[in-house]
Amino acid sequence: MSQTPLMPKATAVWLVENTSLTFEQIAEFCKLHPLEVRGIADGEVAAGIKGLDPITSGQLTREELERAAKNPNHQLRLAERKVKVPEIKRTKGPRYTPVSKRQDRPNAILWLLRNHPELKDAQIIRLIGTTKSTIAQIRDRTHWNAQSLTPIDPVSLGLCSQIDLDFEVARAAKDRPAALAEAGSTLLSAEETTAPEPVHAEPQPFADMSRPKREEEAQIDVDSVFAKLKQLKRTDDEDDEG
Predict the structure, then answer these.
(1) 132-157 per-position pLDDT tens digit
(2) What's the DSSP call for residue 191?
(3) For the whole prediction, is pTM greater than 0.85?
(4) CA distance readout (Å), 60 to 71, 81, 100
(5) Angle formed by the axes of helices 23-30 and 8-18, nearest 10°
């Protein structure tokens, strides 16, 4: 028997509106992320979804609900169903997106590309049920509606759950270090960055230009300058007399 209630988001909406359960209790019972439940309470998630009473639908007993309301650490348990409903196995391939939400997918793709560039196209396809060509058009700004797109979190749009998004991001983070190592994008060690410069046996013609002169080398001998000027003036006077 599945441990997830039917219509979990609608059930969460009802529990938020009609009970004093904590976000964690509701999230655990409905198999949602606590941030999703908080978003439902703030009106940012599940807008327009009508709450489903889990008591009248036979998914939860009133005694179980009262027990959880008194003890914040109590986890709700589904009531035994009188009619067994076969589980729907999710097939491999892109996620199905309702027609009413398909117009929001480009905004969700743009949000994912900006906030999680480490995600692969296949992961974005799994999350929101789009196509590789659409992702490429939005990435290259060649989408027909590129100028009007606004990055919006796909979780807030109801295109995927926070759990699925966190799972894909964590998977991408695990694959990313290996990819960087293959590409050679590694940082130098502290020993390499702090090691003294090697001494070159052969003189470098431009070494003096790239190295700042020491203060004693940069100082000008004022007396020698004036002596040379006097010598030049004396020579000019002798030439005039001659």
Answers:
(1) 999 999 999 999 988 999 999 888 88
(2) H
(3) no
(4) 16, 10, 30
(5) 160
Do residues 27 and 33 touch, judged by C-beta distance below 8 A?
Answer: yes
Distance CA 109, CA 57 (A): 36
- Residue type, position 235, single letter: T
Query: Which amino acid, residue 90?
Result: R
Q: How far apart are CA 157 and CA 235, in angstroms?
A: 91
Quick one: how many helices (H) and strands (E) in the chain? 13, 0
Within 8 A by CB and 6+ apart from 131, the residues are 94, 125
Q: Sign of torsion, CA 128 131 133 134?
A: negative
Q: In this structure, is the dihedral angle defined by the CA atoms of residues 86, 91, 95 and 96, taken in order, positive or negative?
A: negative
The answer to whether residues 105 and 125 touch, using CB atoms and an 8 Å cutoff, is: no
Identity of the amino acid at 158: G
Question: Are 16 and 50 a contacting pair, CB within 8 Å?
Answer: no
What contacts 77, CB < 8 A, 6 or more positions away?
A: 64
The residues of the chain scoring below 70 in pLDDT are 1-2, 81-102, 176-226, 233, 235-242
